[in-house]
From TrEMBL:
SUPFAM superfamilies: FAD/NAD(P)-binding domain. It comes from marine metagenome. InterPro entries: FAD-dep_OxRdtase, FAD/NAD-bd_sf. This is FAD dependent oxidoreductase domain-containing protein. Transmembrane segments: none annotated. Coiled coil: none annotated. Pfam families: DAO. Residues 35-345 form the FAD dependent oxidoreductase domain.
Length: 349
Protein backbone atom coordinates (compact mmCIF):
# COMPACT_ATOMS: atom_id res chain seq x y z
CA UNK A 1 0.00 0.00 0.00
CA UNK A 2 1.43 3.41 -0.93
CA UNK A 3 1.88 6.05 1.75
CA UNK A 4 -0.86 8.15 0.11
CA UNK A 5 -3.37 5.30 0.39
CA UNK A 6 -2.26 3.80 3.72
CA UNK A 7 -5.01 3.82 6.35
CA UNK A 8 -4.39 6.28 9.18
CA UNK A 9 -5.52 4.70 12.45
CA UNK A 10 -6.20 6.23 15.84
CA UNK A 11 -3.56 5.68 18.55
CA UNK A 12 -4.27 3.10 21.23
CA UNK A 13 -5.59 5.57 23.79
CA UNK A 14 -8.16 5.59 26.57
CA UNK A 15 -10.44 7.67 24.36
CA UNK A 16 -10.18 5.40 21.33
CA UNK A 17 -10.99 2.41 23.54
CA UNK A 18 -14.06 3.96 25.19
CA UNK A 19 -15.54 6.32 22.55
CA UNK A 20 -18.92 6.21 20.92
CA UNK A 21 -18.90 4.59 17.44
CA UNK A 22 -17.37 6.62 14.63
CA UNK A 23 -19.58 8.17 11.96
CA UNK A 24 -19.68 6.42 8.59
CA UNK A 25 -17.34 8.17 6.16
CA UNK A 26 -15.23 7.13 3.19
CA UNK A 27 -12.26 8.49 1.22
CA UNK A 28 -12.96 11.15 -1.39
CA UNK A 29 -12.85 9.53 -4.86
CA UNK A 30 -14.64 12.06 -7.06
CA UNK A 31 -14.93 15.77 -7.83
CA UNK A 32 -17.29 17.86 -5.68
CA UNK A 33 -18.32 21.51 -5.81
CA UNK A 34 -19.29 23.31 -2.59
CA UNK A 35 -19.43 26.66 -0.88
CA UNK A 36 -16.84 25.85 1.79
CA UNK A 37 -14.19 23.12 1.99
CA UNK A 38 -12.70 22.41 5.41
CA UNK A 39 -9.41 20.57 5.80
CA UNK A 40 -9.20 18.96 9.25
CA UNK A 41 -12.04 17.26 11.12
CA UNK A 42 -11.10 18.26 14.66
CA UNK A 43 -13.05 20.56 16.95
CA UNK A 44 -12.28 23.63 14.82
CA UNK A 45 -13.26 22.10 11.49
CA UNK A 46 -16.30 20.25 12.82
CA UNK A 47 -17.69 23.24 14.72
CA UNK A 48 -17.19 25.51 11.72
CA UNK A 49 -18.71 22.94 9.37
CA UNK A 50 -21.73 22.47 11.62
CA UNK A 51 -22.37 26.22 11.90
CA UNK A 52 -22.00 26.75 8.15
CA UNK A 53 -24.25 23.82 7.27
CA UNK A 54 -26.89 25.10 9.68
CA UNK A 55 -26.66 28.47 7.90
CA UNK A 56 -27.45 26.82 4.56
CA UNK A 57 -23.94 26.58 3.08
CA UNK A 58 -22.81 23.46 1.24
CA UNK A 59 -19.87 22.11 3.22
CA UNK A 60 -17.28 19.39 2.59
CA UNK A 61 -14.97 18.31 5.43
CA UNK A 62 -11.79 16.34 4.72
CA UNK A 63 -9.39 14.56 7.05
CA UNK A 64 -6.33 12.40 6.51
CA UNK A 65 -7.55 10.18 9.35
CA UNK A 66 -11.09 10.44 10.70
CA UNK A 67 -13.06 12.99 12.74
CA UNK A 68 -11.17 13.50 16.00
CA UNK A 69 -8.02 11.70 14.81
CA UNK A 70 -5.64 14.50 15.87
CA UNK A 71 -5.48 16.63 18.99
CA UNK A 72 -9.27 16.70 19.36
CA UNK A 73 -9.38 12.97 20.07
CA UNK A 74 -6.17 12.76 22.12
CA UNK A 75 -6.37 15.63 24.62
CA UNK A 76 -7.23 15.34 28.30
CA UNK A 77 -10.91 16.12 27.83
CA UNK A 78 -10.81 19.06 30.25
CA UNK A 79 -13.25 21.86 29.37
CA UNK A 80 -11.58 24.88 30.93
CA UNK A 81 -12.82 28.45 30.46
CA UNK A 82 -10.41 31.42 30.51
CA UNK A 83 -7.08 31.48 28.70
CA UNK A 84 -4.83 28.60 29.74
CA UNK A 85 -1.63 30.54 30.45
CA UNK A 86 -2.12 34.29 30.04
CA UNK A 87 -3.94 36.83 32.18
CA UNK A 88 -6.17 39.49 30.56
CA UNK A 89 -3.37 42.06 30.92
CA UNK A 90 -0.86 39.72 29.28
CA UNK A 91 -3.28 39.03 26.41
CA UNK A 92 -3.65 42.77 25.80
CA UNK A 93 0.13 43.26 25.74
CA UNK A 94 0.59 40.36 23.32
CA UNK A 95 -2.14 41.05 20.75
CA UNK A 96 -3.14 44.64 21.44
CA UNK A 97 -5.80 46.69 23.25
CA UNK A 98 -8.62 45.70 20.86
CA UNK A 99 -8.21 41.97 20.35
CA UNK A 100 -6.69 41.18 23.77
CA UNK A 101 -9.77 42.17 25.80
CA UNK A 102 -12.05 40.68 23.16
CA UNK A 103 -10.26 37.31 23.38
CA UNK A 104 -10.29 37.36 27.20
CA UNK A 105 -14.03 38.10 27.33
CA UNK A 106 -14.73 35.41 24.74
CA UNK A 107 -12.83 32.85 26.79
CA UNK A 108 -15.12 33.45 29.78
CA UNK A 109 -17.96 31.63 28.02
CA UNK A 110 -15.90 29.08 26.07
CA UNK A 111 -16.92 26.20 28.34
CA UNK A 112 -20.58 27.28 28.10
CA UNK A 113 -20.34 26.87 24.32
CA UNK A 114 -19.13 23.27 24.64
CA UNK A 115 -21.76 22.19 27.13
CA UNK A 116 -24.50 24.01 25.18
CA UNK A 117 -23.55 22.06 22.06
CA UNK A 118 -23.65 18.80 24.00
CA UNK A 119 -27.15 19.63 25.25
CA UNK A 120 -28.43 20.88 21.89
CA UNK A 121 -27.30 17.89 19.86
CA UNK A 122 -27.63 15.26 22.63
CA UNK A 123 -23.97 14.25 22.29
CA UNK A 124 -23.12 11.23 24.42
CA UNK A 125 -19.66 12.14 25.70
CA UNK A 126 -20.05 11.71 29.48
CA UNK A 127 -20.09 15.45 30.32
CA UNK A 128 -19.32 16.41 33.91
CA UNK A 129 -19.51 20.05 34.99
CA UNK A 130 -18.24 20.31 38.53
CA UNK A 131 -15.44 22.82 37.90
CA UNK A 132 -11.78 23.23 37.07
CA UNK A 133 -9.25 23.52 39.92
CA UNK A 134 -6.12 25.51 39.09
CA UNK A 135 -3.29 25.12 41.58
CA UNK A 136 -0.24 27.17 42.49
CA UNK A 137 2.55 24.62 42.61
CA UNK A 138 4.68 26.45 45.20
CA UNK A 139 4.61 29.44 47.55
CA UNK A 140 6.61 31.63 45.16
CA UNK A 141 3.92 31.15 42.48
CA UNK A 142 1.17 32.31 44.83
CA UNK A 143 1.53 36.08 44.36
CA UNK A 144 1.37 35.92 40.55
CA UNK A 145 -1.46 33.38 40.72
CA UNK A 146 -3.57 35.59 43.00
CA UNK A 147 -2.94 38.65 40.79
CA UNK A 148 -4.09 36.75 37.71
CA UNK A 149 -7.22 35.56 39.52
CA UNK A 150 -8.07 39.17 40.45
CA UNK A 151 -7.71 40.25 36.83
CA UNK A 152 -10.12 37.55 35.68
CA UNK A 153 -12.61 38.40 38.44
CA UNK A 154 -12.46 42.07 37.38
CA UNK A 155 -13.74 41.19 33.88
CA UNK A 156 -16.52 38.93 35.16
CA UNK A 157 -15.02 35.49 35.77
CA UNK A 158 -16.50 33.35 38.52
CA UNK A 159 -13.50 32.21 40.60
CA UNK A 160 -13.26 31.06 44.20
CA UNK A 161 -9.85 31.13 45.91
CA UNK A 162 -9.07 27.90 47.76
CA UNK A 163 -6.76 27.96 50.75
CA UNK A 164 -4.71 24.87 51.44
CA UNK A 165 -7.05 22.85 53.74
CA UNK A 166 -9.99 23.14 51.35
CA UNK A 167 -7.77 22.60 48.32
CA UNK A 168 -6.24 19.45 49.82
CA UNK A 169 -9.72 18.07 50.50
CA UNK A 170 -11.00 18.77 46.97
CA UNK A 171 -7.90 17.33 45.29
CA UNK A 172 -7.06 14.45 47.57
CA UNK A 173 -3.47 15.74 47.50
CA UNK A 174 -1.31 17.85 49.81
CA UNK A 175 1.19 18.79 47.09
CA UNK A 176 0.02 22.32 46.27
CA UNK A 177 0.30 25.64 48.11
CA UNK A 178 -3.07 27.11 47.14
CA UNK A 179 -5.55 27.11 44.30
CA UNK A 180 -8.79 28.35 42.84
CA UNK A 181 -11.88 26.70 41.42
CA UNK A 182 -13.60 27.92 38.27
CA UNK A 183 -17.11 26.41 38.46
CA UNK A 184 -17.90 26.76 34.75
CA UNK A 185 -15.24 24.16 33.91
CA UNK A 186 -15.69 20.43 33.56
CA UNK A 187 -14.70 17.43 31.48
CA UNK A 188 -15.87 15.25 28.60
CA UNK A 189 -14.84 12.21 26.56
CA UNK A 190 -13.19 14.26 23.79
CA UNK A 191 -13.25 11.71 20.97
CA UNK A 192 -16.93 11.01 21.62
CA UNK A 193 -17.55 14.77 21.55
CA UNK A 194 -15.76 15.07 18.18
CA UNK A 195 -17.78 12.18 16.79
CA UNK A 196 -20.97 13.76 18.09
CA UNK A 197 -20.11 17.02 16.33
CA UNK A 198 -19.44 15.06 13.14
CA UNK A 199 -22.83 13.37 13.38
CA UNK A 200 -24.53 16.71 13.95
CA UNK A 201 -22.72 18.25 10.97
CA UNK A 202 -23.81 15.38 8.71
CA UNK A 203 -27.42 15.74 9.85
CA UNK A 204 -27.21 19.45 9.04
CA UNK A 205 -26.14 18.59 5.48
CA UNK A 206 -22.33 18.60 5.59
CA UNK A 207 -20.33 15.88 3.83
CA UNK A 208 -17.37 14.27 5.59
CA UNK A 209 -14.59 12.34 3.86
CA UNK A 210 -12.07 10.43 5.99
CA UNK A 211 -8.74 8.83 5.05
CA UNK A 212 -8.33 11.68 2.57
CA UNK A 213 -4.92 13.32 2.66
CA UNK A 214 -4.88 16.65 0.88
CA UNK A 215 -1.85 16.96 -1.40
CA UNK A 216 -2.47 20.30 -3.10
CA UNK A 217 -4.38 23.54 -2.57
CA UNK A 218 -4.41 26.35 -5.11
CA UNK A 219 -6.50 29.21 -6.42
CA UNK A 220 -8.21 28.78 -9.80
CA UNK A 221 -10.29 31.95 -9.84
CA UNK A 222 -12.96 32.37 -8.77
CA UNK A 223 -12.62 29.08 -6.84
CA UNK A 224 -10.19 27.22 -4.63
CA UNK A 225 -9.13 23.73 -5.67
CA UNK A 226 -8.46 21.18 -2.93
CA UNK A 227 -6.88 17.98 -4.27
CA UNK A 228 -6.35 14.57 -2.73
CA UNK A 229 -4.66 11.64 -4.44
CA UNK A 230 -8.03 10.30 -5.60
CA UNK A 231 -10.42 13.26 -5.71
CA UNK A 232 -10.90 17.00 -5.83
CA UNK A 233 -13.08 19.68 -4.24
CA UNK A 234 -13.80 23.06 -5.79
CA UNK A 235 -14.94 25.60 -3.22
CA UNK A 236 -15.62 29.31 -2.88
CA UNK A 237 -13.82 29.38 0.46
CA UNK A 238 -11.46 27.08 2.36
CA UNK A 239 -10.88 26.66 6.10
CA UNK A 240 -7.66 25.00 7.25
CA UNK A 241 -8.22 23.48 10.70
CA UNK A 242 -5.14 21.29 10.97
CA UNK A 243 -3.75 22.66 14.27
CA UNK A 244 -0.66 20.77 15.47
CA UNK A 245 -0.65 18.58 12.35
CA UNK A 246 -0.30 21.51 9.94
CA UNK A 247 2.05 20.79 7.03
CA UNK A 248 3.20 22.79 3.99
CA UNK A 249 -0.15 22.64 2.18
CA UNK A 250 -0.49 26.44 2.40
CA UNK A 251 2.66 28.63 2.25
CA UNK A 252 3.76 29.96 5.62
CA UNK A 253 1.02 28.34 7.71
CA UNK A 254 3.24 25.65 9.23
CA UNK A 255 5.75 28.33 10.20
CA UNK A 256 3.04 30.31 12.05
CA UNK A 257 2.47 27.64 14.71
CA UNK A 258 4.63 25.59 17.07
CA UNK A 259 3.47 21.98 17.49
CA UNK A 260 3.67 20.99 21.16
CA UNK A 261 3.50 17.35 22.18
CA UNK A 262 1.26 16.39 25.07
CA UNK A 263 1.38 12.88 26.53
CA UNK A 264 -0.97 11.17 28.97
CA UNK A 265 -1.32 8.06 31.07
CA UNK A 266 -4.44 6.47 32.53
CA UNK A 267 -4.89 3.86 35.25
CA UNK A 268 -7.19 0.91 35.25
CA UNK A 269 -10.52 1.71 37.00
CA UNK A 270 -9.64 2.56 40.59
CA UNK A 271 -10.87 0.69 43.63
CA UNK A 272 -13.78 2.46 45.31
CA UNK A 273 -11.77 3.67 48.31
CA UNK A 274 -9.01 5.16 46.14
CA UNK A 275 -11.48 6.70 43.71
CA UNK A 276 -13.31 8.37 46.59
CA UNK A 277 -10.06 9.92 47.82
CA UNK A 278 -8.84 11.48 44.53
CA UNK A 279 -10.81 14.40 43.08
CA UNK A 280 -13.93 13.19 44.93
CA UNK A 281 -16.04 15.97 43.41
CA UNK A 282 -15.14 15.01 39.84
CA UNK A 283 -13.30 18.24 38.99
CA UNK A 284 -10.38 18.56 36.60
CA UNK A 285 -7.13 20.14 37.80
CA UNK A 286 -3.98 21.69 36.37
CA UNK A 287 -1.02 23.47 37.91
CA UNK A 288 1.04 26.57 37.19
CA UNK A 289 4.34 24.93 36.34
CA UNK A 290 6.03 25.84 33.06
CA UNK A 291 5.87 22.14 32.22
CA UNK A 292 2.23 21.84 33.17
CA UNK A 293 0.58 18.79 34.68
CA UNK A 294 -3.16 18.26 34.33
CA UNK A 295 -5.45 15.49 35.54
CA UNK A 296 -8.97 14.16 36.05
CA UNK A 297 -10.97 10.97 36.43
CA UNK A 298 -12.99 9.44 33.60
CA UNK A 299 -16.54 8.06 33.69
CA UNK A 300 -15.25 4.55 34.46
CA UNK A 301 -13.24 5.66 37.50
CA UNK A 302 -9.81 5.73 35.89
CA UNK A 303 -7.33 8.45 36.85
CA UNK A 304 -5.66 10.36 34.03
CA UNK A 305 -2.55 12.57 34.22
CA UNK A 306 -0.90 14.43 31.36
CA UNK A 307 2.02 16.75 30.71
CA UNK A 308 4.36 18.04 28.03
CA UNK A 309 6.22 15.31 26.16
CA UNK A 310 9.01 14.84 23.65
CA UNK A 311 7.50 12.15 21.41
CA UNK A 312 4.02 10.98 20.42
CA UNK A 313 4.90 7.31 20.20
CA UNK A 314 3.90 5.00 23.03
CA UNK A 315 7.03 2.91 22.36
CA UNK A 316 9.27 5.49 24.07
CA UNK A 317 8.49 5.10 27.78
CA UNK A 318 10.58 7.94 29.23
CA UNK A 319 7.85 10.59 29.17
CA UNK A 320 5.22 8.17 30.40
CA UNK A 321 7.42 6.90 33.23
CA UNK A 322 8.04 10.51 34.32
CA UNK A 323 4.32 11.23 34.44
CA UNK A 324 3.53 8.03 36.36
CA UNK A 325 6.21 8.94 38.89
CA UNK A 326 4.72 12.41 39.30
CA UNK A 327 1.21 10.96 39.66
CA UNK A 328 2.37 8.86 42.60
CA UNK A 329 4.10 11.88 44.17
CA UNK A 330 0.98 14.02 43.89
CA UNK A 331 -1.36 11.20 44.87
CA UNK A 332 0.38 8.58 47.03
CA UNK A 333 -2.90 6.61 46.93
CA UNK A 334 -1.80 5.49 43.45
CA UNK A 335 1.42 3.81 44.60
CA UNK A 336 0.20 0.29 43.84
CA UNK A 337 -2.10 1.16 40.93
CA UNK A 338 -1.80 -0.48 37.50
CA UNK A 339 -1.62 1.73 34.42
CA UNK A 340 -3.71 0.74 31.40
CA UNK A 341 -3.16 3.37 28.67
CA UNK A 342 -0.46 5.75 27.48
CA UNK A 343 -0.60 7.95 24.37
CA UNK A 344 0.35 11.31 22.95
CA UNK A 345 -0.47 13.90 20.32
CA UNK A 346 0.31 17.37 19.02
CA UNK A 347 -1.41 20.70 19.66
CA UNK A 348 -0.46 24.03 18.09
CA UNK A 349 0.55 27.16 19.97
Amino acid sequence: VSLEHAKVDLPHSLWAATAEPAVESNPLKSQIDCDVAIVGCGFTGLRAGLALAEAGQTVVLLDSGEPGWGASGRNGGSVNPLLPFHSPEQASRLIGPVFGPRLSRLSLTSADEVFDLIDKFKINCHPVRTGWIRTAHCRSARRLFEAQCRQWIDIGAEIEILEKPELDSMLGSTAFAMGAIIPRGGNIQPLSFARGLAQAAIKAGAQIYSQTRIVDLFREKPEWVVKSSQGMVKAQKVILGTNGYTDNLFPGLAQSVVPVISVQVATKPLADDISAAILPGGQTFSDTRRTIFYGRRDHMGRFLLGSHGTTETSDDHRDFDRIKKEAKRLFPQLSETDWEFQWGGRAAV
